[in-house]
Every structure is written in structure tokens, then in C-alpha cells.
């Protein structure tokens, strides 16, 4: 029985599903890695190799495919202008959705806590990478810090900054689509698809579509003329900006550009491709280093060291979820397979053609494949919807372009499949966003109602050592208010504090600067846990704030498997678990593993040398076990315990 190339593609796709499930379990993850994937014996690095091998196989199939038989130049459709003020309407909708003064009444939400903590520390004179851990590039953090330095440290300031970023994102998306898609109806459908694909609802600059915007624009620009000095230089500079903003995305963009120039080496433009490819890389890296060095100055070596360290830890599988198939991942890999086959078929028709002006959209498809494949290295590590879909964003765009009408040489049926897979991927992605969208929506509605009716409580603010954003909320938590007052008392004002595990975000709430190196509750190695112990050794008078359930767990009370923050189940999470992202049921296990590492490295030392000196709601405050200090602090705590001072809050 003869099997043609299309039959081979179906066969390889069928093989990929069990291969991604089983083969990564044959390779044992490093022993020093703590993650759900490692606990299940699943190697995310091996999963990436399997995906890479599959893409290579599909590319070979694409080289064997016959042309669809449709030939001749496509007739360029007449350009259809948008209705007047349509862009203004879009930007107005974005402004309303991200209206900062409503959202701030119920914040913080999710990823915004990372940036509120980081900027809180910078306001106190600390520097990222040297004084505290930061996972992303300096260009992501410093402008937010400058903005809040001008307009004041508050949730409203950060959310206003984020709203401006979303306006920029949607404005650039509109401009790009207007330049690429002549027909108005298709353009607006593509806008809806891309707008959803660029939305995350995690509410933080690190998860905004803006994180990948420079790379996406750079590759769109590069596709229009890779052998044009002006165009290539602009694309390279944007790639450098992307590297300084988020290096993992920038590396994927740089690799995609390298793939394009590598293919062009096979045609008659080989000399120009070699020169332009080398120049592209040099310009991008120079811009990256220039921006980072200008922002960081003497901290630049710490940035490089931190970048190398964290990259190695993530490559080893830290903080990884086990990859599982969902409707969303099936659609994404189907889109990648189809796109790879079409890109390889385009190369077979002649690499020289990719250097011609008429091949801009075919070049964009090839760049999209390179960007997706390289982006999967980090996307498969976390394996949730927020990390898995973004590498495919350029491919989601490519199939809506006019040049895709014949499936990039594979025929109109291939184009229909491409469009269907993009819609399926984005719709199932949207289903996965519903739990976090509902959380933000509740905050927006409650904040709007409170703002418009002035139905909120004002707590008297103590003179804390740093800004305390708890007092921005509609109804400040009484325990947090009392805790803020506790650390605002003269004998404790400015005292060093270690925030244990999930209490990491509390400092900015109560006006205490988080002073240790860690920025949140993830310990990316046992060595990072030792940094917390070193902080306590260097600051013997330091206090420790932790959740009471953690202290009970350390002392053998209660459920030893109890996590410090429970994730409430919901019907939207149940649906999203199966349709969109496999991480929802792995989060509780990840919390146990993460908190177990804290207990093993830091918690045992606390039990031996510290005691509870105060309790505030679900939080306990520890101090070194000295009777004089403990008694004094405990007496003060008794006077300030929440519930004893109902008049602390007033309308």
C-alpha cells in the first residue's frame, strides 16, 4: 500500500501524541530539580526534543509534497478603509477594561504583585539582579519604576502604566493589520483573533502581550525585506529591544531571523544573506547590551550572572508542569505542523523566491515557524496556556494574510485548515482564561460600584517605613492594618523582615520593604533557599512573617500536606483543565512541593531558633528565641491584635 506525503503527515501527527506523553518519562530529570514534572518523572527538555524531531520530520514531508496545481499570481484585492473613529472606539474599550482606579480598589490580583513588590523595593533604593531576583529584562521593570516614581507608588499608578501599555499594544496591532490585510471584514476578524491571543488576564507586565510585541513587529518588518539595509537594521534594533525586555522571547526572534537568512543562503542571494544575517545578529546583540548596560550601569554584571543562572535552572526543569494534551495544544501543534509543511514546500519551490519582494508573506510564515519552535523551549517548560500559546502568535497571524489564500502552495483546503486551527486555538485559549478573567471582572465591578457610590472604608494610615497599598482597597483587611501598625511602632520601624513562602507579597501591603534576595515564593534551587537563611544569619534581630498554617505544619500540628493558600475549585477551572490548560490540577501539588522546599531548607531552622511573638489573622510573626525580646514583642502584639480595635477602620 502506497502512502503519500499527506498520509505520512497524518501518521507522524498520530505518533506525536503518544510520543509527547511517554518518551519524556524515559529520561530522568535532574535530582536537584523541584517541580511537578520532575516529581512525575517527566522531562520537559526531552519533550522539546521530541517536538523538534517531529517538526523536522514534517519539514521533510513538506519537501516531498507536490504543488497544489493552483498557479499564477494572486489578484490583489482593493483596499477597504475602516469606518471613521473605529480605532478610537477600540482604544476606548481597552481604557474601560483596564480602568486603573476601579481595579485598584480590589487589587492586587495575580502577576501585578510581582511588579508591585519589585518597584516597592526599587523605591527603597534596591537594585534588581544585585539586591533581589528578577526573572525578566531590565527594560520591563525600569520604565514602570520611573512611571511610579513620578506619579507615586500605588496600585493605581501601576495599573495606569499597564493600561497605557495595553493601549500601545492594541494600537500597534491595528496599524500592523491595516498594513497587511486589505479587506476590512477579514482584517477585523483577524484583529479579534490576535487581540485575544495577545491577552492573558494575569494582569502583569510580564504576561501582557506587550512582552512579545517588539519581537512580533520585528519579524513582520523583517519579512517585508530581509535584504534591505534599512528594514533589516530596524528589525534587528527591535529584536535588541525585545532581548532587553524579555530575553527568552528575544532569543526566539533572533533564532527565527537566523533561520530565514540560513534558507536564503541556499539561493542566489547567499552572499547578501550571509552579510545581512551576521549584521542582524550583531546589531540586535549590541542594542540589547547597550540598553541593559545603560539602565543597570554597575549592576550589569549581576544581570548577566542572574540571566545565566536562571536560564540554567529553567533548562533543567525548575517550576515545570507536566505536559498533557488538551484541545488547545492539539490545535497549536496541528497549526505548527501545517505551517512547517507549507514553509518547507515553499523552500522546495526555490529558496531564491524567498528573497524576492513578492514572497513577504511566505517569509513571514517561515519566521513564524522558527519563532514557534524556539519559543517552545520555554513554552513546554511551564506547559500552561500562558506559556504554550504565545510562541504561535506569528503563525496565528500568517494564515489570515492575503498570500495564504492558496495555503502557501498547499491549496485552498490547507488555507481553510489553517484558519480553522487558528480559531480553535484562540477560542480554547479564551476558555482557559475564564477563571482569571472572572477574578478581574469581579474586582472591576466591585471597584466601579464602590467608586461611584463612595461605599468604601478608609483606614487611618500609620507612618510606615515604606508605602502601604493595603489602604487603597475598598475595605482594608483588619489583620493587615494591625500588622502595619505593629511594624510602624518606633521600636520596629524599619526592622528587617523575612517573608516566609506565600507571605512574600505582604511587604508592600503593610509598608515593610522586602529586603532578602528572593522576590516571591519560588525557590529555583536549594541554593536560593540558603540565601534566606543567610539573611537571617546576617540580621539576627530580623522578624519572620508566615502563615499560621505553615508554622503549624512545621511544628507537627494539623495536616502535614496542607498548603498555605488553597485554590478554590470552580466549574470554569474544570472546563479549562480539559479544554485549554493542564496546569489547574497540578497547582496544588506544585504548592506542596514549593512549600516543602521552604520547610526543608528554611523552616526547620526557624523552629529551632524562633518563636511566635504576635498573631494577626492568618499570619504569625516570629522573632529569635530570646526571652526579653519575645516578651516585649508579645506584649505589644497583645495590645494591637486585630479585633481589639474595631475603630481602626472608619467610613
Task: Give a written overview of the molecule.
The protein is mainly alpha-helical and 651 residues long. Helix content is 61%, strand content 4%. The protein has 26 helices and six strands. β4 and β5 form a beta hairpin. 48% of the residues are buried.
Overall pLDDT score:
90
Report the end-to-end length measured between terminal Cα atoms.
Answer: 81 Å
Strand pairing plus helix content: what structural class? Answer: mainly alpha
The helix fraction, in percent, is: 55-70%
Number of helices: 26
Share in β-strands? under 5%
Question: Quick one: how many beta strands?
Answer: 6
Radius of gyration (Å)? 27 Å
Assembly context of the chains = single chain
Largest sheet: 4 strands, mixed
Low-confidence stretches: 628-651
Shape: globular
Lateral arrangement of strands in the main beta sheet: 2-3-5-4
Question: Helix and strand layout, with pairings?
Answer:
Layout: H1 5-22, H2 36-39, H3 44-64, H4 86-97, H5 100-103, H6 112-123, H7 138-151, H8 155-180, H9 184-197, H10 213-223, H11 229-245, H12 247-264, H13 270-296, H14 300-316, H15 327-349, H16 360-382, H17 385-388, H18 393-398, H19 412-453, E1 458-459, H20 478-488, E2 497-499, H21 506-510, H22 526-538, E3 543-547, H23 548-554, H24 571-579, H25 587-609, E4 610-616, E5 619-624, H26 627-640, E6 649-650
Parallel strand pairs: 2-3
Antiparallel strand pairs: 1-6, 3-5, 4-5
Helix pairs in contact: 1-3, 3-15, 3-16, 4-8, 6-7, 8-9, 9-19, 10-11, 10-12, 10-16, 11-12, 11-13, 12-13, 12-16, 15-16, 15-19, 19-24, 22-25
Amino acid at each position: 500500500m502506497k502512502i503519500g506525503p499527506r498520509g505520512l503527515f497524518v501518521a507522524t501527527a498520530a505518533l506525536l501524541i503518544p510520543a509527547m506523553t511517554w518518551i519524556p518519562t524515559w529520561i530522568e530529570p535532574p535530582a536537584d530539580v523541584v517541580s511537578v514534572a520532575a516529581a512525575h518523572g517527566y522531562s520537559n527538555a526531552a519533550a522539546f526534543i521530541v517536538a523538534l524531531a517531529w517538526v523536522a520530520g514534517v519539514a521533510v514531508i513538506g519537501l516531498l509534497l507536490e504543488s497544489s496545481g493552483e498557479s499564477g499570481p494572486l489578484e490583489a484585492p482593493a483596499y477597504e478603509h475602516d469606518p471613521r473613529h473605529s480605532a478610537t472606539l477600540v482604544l476606548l474599550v481597552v481604557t474601560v477594561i483596564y480602568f486603573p482606579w476601579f481595579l485598584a480598589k480590589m487589587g492586587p490580583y495575580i502577576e501585578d504583585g510581582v511588579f508591585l513588590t519589585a518597584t516597592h523595593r526599587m523605591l527603597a533604593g534596591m537594585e534588581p539582579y544585585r539586591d533581589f531576583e528578577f526573572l525578566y529584562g531590565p527594560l520591563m521593570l525600569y520604565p514602570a519604576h520611573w512611571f511610579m516614581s513620578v506619579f507615586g507608588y500605588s496600585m493605581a499608578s501601576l495599573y495606569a502604566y499597564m493600561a497605557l501599555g495595553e493601549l500601545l499594544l492594541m494600537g500597534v496591532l491595528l496599524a500592523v493589520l491595516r498594513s497587511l490585510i486589505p479587506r476590512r471584514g477579514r482584517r477585523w476578524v483577524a484583529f479579534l483573533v490576535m487581540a485575544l491571543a495577545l491577552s492573558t488576564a494575569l494582569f502583569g507586565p510580564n504576561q501582557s502581550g506587550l512582552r512579545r510585541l517588539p519581537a512580533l513587529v520585528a519579524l513582520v518588518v523583517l519579512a517585508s525585506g530581509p535584504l534591505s539595509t534599512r528594514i533589516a537594521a530596524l528589525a534587528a534594533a527591535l529584536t535588541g529591544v525585545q532581548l532587553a525586555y524579555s530575553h527568552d522571547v528575544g532569543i526566539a526572534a533572533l533564532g527565527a531571523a537566523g533561520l530565514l537568512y540560513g534558507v536564503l543562503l541556499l539561493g542566489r542571494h547567499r552572499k547578501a544573506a550571509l552579510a545581512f544575517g551576521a549584521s542582524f545578529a550583531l546589531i540586535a546583540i549590541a542594542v540589547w547590551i547597550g540598553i541593559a548596560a545603560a539602565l543597570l550601569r554597575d549592576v550589569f554584571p549581576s544581570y548577566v550572572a542572574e540571566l545565566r543562572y536562571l536560564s540554567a535552572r529553567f533548562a533543567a526543569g525548575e517550576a515545570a508542569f507536566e505536559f498533557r494534551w488538551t484541545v488547545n495544544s492539539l490545535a497549536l501543534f496541528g497549526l505548527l505542523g501545517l505551517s512547517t509543511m507549507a514553509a518547507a514546500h515553499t523552500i522546495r519551490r526555490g529558496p531564491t523566491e524567498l528573497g524576492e519582494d513578492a514572497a513577504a508573506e511566505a517569509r513571514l510564515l517561515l519566521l513564524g515557524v522558527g519563532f514557534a519552535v524556539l519559543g517552545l523551549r520555554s513554552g513546554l517548560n511551564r506547559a500552561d496556556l500562558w506559556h504554550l500559546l504565545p510562541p504561535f502568535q506569528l503563525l496565528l497571524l500568517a494564515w489570515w494574510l492575503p498570500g495564504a489564500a492558496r495555503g502557501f502552495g498547499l491549496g485552498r483546503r490547507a488555507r481553510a485548515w489553517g484558519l480553522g486551527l487558528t480559531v480553535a486555538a484562540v477560542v480554547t485559549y479564551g476558555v482557559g482564561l475564564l477563571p482569571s478573567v472572572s477574578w478581574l471582572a469581579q474586582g472591576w465591578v466591585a471597584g466601579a460600584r464602590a467608586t461611584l457610590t463612595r461605599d468604601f472604608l478608609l483606614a487611618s494610615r500609620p507612618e510606615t517605613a515604606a508605602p502601604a497599598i493595603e489602604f487603597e482597597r475598598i475595605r482594608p483587611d483588619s489583620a493587615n492594618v494591625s500588622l502595619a501598625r505593629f511594624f510602624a511602632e518606633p521600636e520596629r520601624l524599619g526592622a528587617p523582615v523575612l517573608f516566609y513562602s506565600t507571605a512574600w507579597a505582604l511587604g508592600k501591603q503593610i509598608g515593610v520593604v522586602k529586603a532578602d534576595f528572593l522576590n516571591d515564593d519560588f525557590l529555583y534551587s536549594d541554593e536560593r533557599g540558603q540565601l534566606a537563611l543567610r539573611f537571617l544569619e546576617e540580621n539576627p534581630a530580623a522578624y519572620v512573617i508566615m502563615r499560621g498554617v505553615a508554622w503549624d505544619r512545621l511544628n507537627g500540628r494539623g495536616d502535614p500536606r496542607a498548603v498555605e493558600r488553597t485554590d478554590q475549585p470552580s466549574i470554569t477551572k474544570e472546563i479549562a483543565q480539559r479544554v485549554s490548560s493542564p496546569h489547574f490540577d497540578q497547582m496544588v501539588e506544585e504548592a506542596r512541593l514549593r512549600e516543602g522546599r521552604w520547610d526543608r531548607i528554611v523552616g526547620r531552622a526557624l523552629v529551632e531558633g524562633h518563636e511566635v511573638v504576635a498573631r494577626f489573622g492568618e499570619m504569625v510573626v516570629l522573632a529569635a528565641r530570646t526571652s526579653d525580646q519575645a516578651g516585649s514583642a508579645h506584649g505589644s502584639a497583645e495590645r494591637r491584635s486585630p479585633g481589639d480595635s474595631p475603630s481602626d477602620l472608619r467610613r
